[in-house]
Amino acid sequence: MHAKEDNYCKYDDQFLQLFTSSLYLAALVASFIASKVCTKFGRKRTILAASVFFLVGAGLSSGAQNLLMLIIGRVLLGFGVGFGNEAVPLFLSEIAPVHRRGAVNILFQLFVTIGILIANLVNYRTSTIHPYGWRLSLGIAGIPALILFIGSLIIPETPASLVERGKESSGHAALQKIRGVKEVDLEFQQILKASEMAREVKHPLKELMKRSSMPPLIIGVLLQVFQQFTGINAIMFYAPVLFQTVGFKNDASLLSSVITGLVNVFCTLVSIVSVDRFGRRILLLQACGQMFISQAAIGIILKLDLHSTDTLTKSQAIWVVVLVCFFVSAFAWSWGPLGWLIPSETFPLETRTTGFAFAVSTNMLCTFIIAQAFLSMLCHMRAIIFFFFAAWIFVMGLFVFYLLPETRNVSIDAMHDDVWKRHPFWNWVIGSDEI
Description:
Elements: H1 14-41, H2 43-62, H3 67-95, H4 101-126, H5 133-139, H6 142-154, H7 159-164, H8 168-179, H9 185-199, H10 204-208, H11 214-229, H12 232-237, H13 239-245, H14 250-278, H15 280-305, H16 314-332, H17 335-346, H18 352-381, H19 384-403, H20 415-420, H21 424-434
């Protein structure tokens, strides 16, 4: 209703942005609550709680009678995201065998990308249904919420969580069921040892603040900051607006966002195949180069050829779509899945849920900042916004090269000795606690 005739300033509306970003602000708060629930009641029940939040949030959003009801629905969905993002990566890391941990954990990101693709397809179809297409779009979110609810009743609890809560015999039986063999004593002894060390820690937050706990905490938090400041969610959230900016009409821009969704899904599959074969660092470094080129090239095209009221040529607009897909592909096999994988596999059991809550909440905070600010940034920074994200990607590459060790094929409970103590910088960081 209030669209302006300006290529870079279609919608500079804080309430419109709040509709998108309120979900992530709620998820930030929920992640700390979910950490406590995860520790006390287990991963399975935390996932169950997430599904209930999703169901209620979807119902309230689709039936909203005013903006306040709509945002309350988004807040409840945000609680679902906070609980789900806390519990699911931990669940996957704890049930996966060490040599398949990367691939299994990336299934989380794979199905996130499938969800994004389905959402884009739903939005493309419901955009033509007036006046209730948006209600249908939001209400259909109840379908995956229902599937998650049923699934959370079927899945087993993780052996580590059961042992952590004093249910050792159930944990042993669960490990046998998950592995499909009777001989699991060696792995179970590792879980018991980690659990005994965890029980000695009465205040995990205090333990997390020790210098010996700094490497996984700093890396977990910075990965989330960098993941969001690649600009990926700016592109995925506002792809229709972005493609309108470069000259596509409404239906064409929605279809273009479907194309980026397809690229997202198929390139996440690349990560599943390669992460345990080539390692984490090589995927992250390669992607930094590819994403830097993409953002810089988009910025150059728009800076030179797209002003306030003109349009790009058809070939230029197609090039922008190609470059966006080039960017999304690199993110999908690297910073997207590995931003969740690496924090989930590096915290020891005694600080795992608390440490991962910091990672999740940081991700939600940065997602909130980008979602709330992007349309306004696009209005005021115009094409320069793509150079802004390119600068962040350059810094990310330096971070990976100098500070991120390889964690491939390392047991979660051996990270301290086999990773942090062998890294020249992180060994210096933790050294004072080792004396």
